[in-house]
Amino acid sequence: MSGTGTILHALLDEGLPIAVVVADRPCRGLEVAAAAGVPAVLVDRAESGGFGAAFDRDGYSCRVVEVLRHHGVGLVVMAGFGTVLGQPVHDAYPHRVLNTHPSLLPAFPGWHAVEEALAAGVSVTGCTVHLAELAVDRGPILAQQEVPVEPGDDAATLHERIKQVERRLYPATVRRVLAVLEAGGDPVTLATDAGSAAEVQGVGR
Ligand code: GRF
């Protein structure tokens, strides 16, 4: 968590068993967690070299793993986490790191997905929930939903409309993943074929 915490809020509202909220910088999400009575831990990126070339990604990732393990976390659910986590997190949580992204991946990966979709002039964008890998915004897709771009949209209005969908799709997908884990399965079995329209929520339905 790095941002405003509205996706976190939706996860909390869904009543999901959230053991701890981790932020990489001081942000409103920590307040959202604290207000809900959930342990909130700042693993400050500034203490691992900050945002420049000196950033120690693996060292930072180990610090995150330490906190997650301390709180008995079994599934990592990123919700606007602005640091790309390194291999130590994926080693500790194989197929157990989820991400939500405000585009129809593989289109528009990266931090400026909404702006780039607008600049490209697409008429439809959306959001994607996927299993995270080391490569940014890559990994098996578990759910997607389309969101139309409307005349007069700017990045703020379009992102908010996408987030309204994320706030439903992400908690629902986390629930599906938890059910698989509780049954002893691997979340990757929930992966859709992103090329198959039938598997993409909102398409053809
Ligand atoms: C969401 O759009 C998420 O997909 C992206 O960051 C945003 C977080 O929103 N990675 P918020 O700060 O929880 O409102």
Summarize the model shown.
This protein has helices spanning 6-13, 28-35, 57-70, 87-92, 113-120, 155-182, and strands spanning 21-23, 40-42, 76-77, 97-101, 124-131, 141-148. By secondary structure, it is of the alpha/beta class.
Write up what this structure looks like.
With 205 residues, the chain is of the alpha/beta class. The chain has six helices and six strands; from the N terminus they run αβαβαβαβαββα. The strands form two sheets. The chain has a four-stranded mixed beta sheet. Strands 1-2 form a two-stranded parallel sheet. It is globular and about 45 Å long. The C terminus is likely disordered. The structure holds 5-O-phosphono-beta-D-ribofuranosylamine. 5-O-phosphono-beta-D-ribofuranosylamine binds next to α1, β4 and α6. 5-O-phosphono-beta-D-ribofuranosylamine (GRF) binds next to α1, β4 and α6.
